[in-house]
Please model this.
Amino acid sequence: GGDRFGTVNISTMASVIARPVAVTASRDHAVANNGGGFAPMFMSLALWVGTIAIFLVLPALARRPRRGERRWSAAPRPLRPASPPAVVQAVVLVAVVNAGVGLRAANLPGLILVAVATSLAFVTLNQAFIALLAYRGRFVSLVLLSLQIASMGGAFPVETAPRFLQLVHPWLPMSYTQLALRTMLAGG
Model:
């Protein structure tokens, strides 16, 4: 009837309010446990820290060019001995995450390839910082590590971060590596 809600009667409204909305959750790319959600972020961090450690052991700068070698071509030479440990750290990391922690990657070959590519990219970046800036390059690597932890969006959506972190997010490599590792772990 003629109540104040127009054509809807009170009993109809009461029955609608009494029945809450039902939600059915579905997961497109479920992971085994909470570790599956955080693993990509920590894998990226581990690879970055591992490449910093590689250049604590190996020289990051060829001091003298070889005979007949131009000065600029001597700069990337330290990448040759640094690349095998970078590949090994990536493969060991994937083995530990996949088998040791039990996360069972949706795409294990892809996860290995992404981890190796990530490690090689990180070793190249860290070597470049040290080659260009000497010991200050190590400091730059640590500052970038801190920025990337805060802005990569691994633990919380980057949209909820302060504006500065949202601005630097697209410029930092871990923003992309953790997404690629997540896709290989969970699928998608």
The chain has a mean pLDDT of 84.
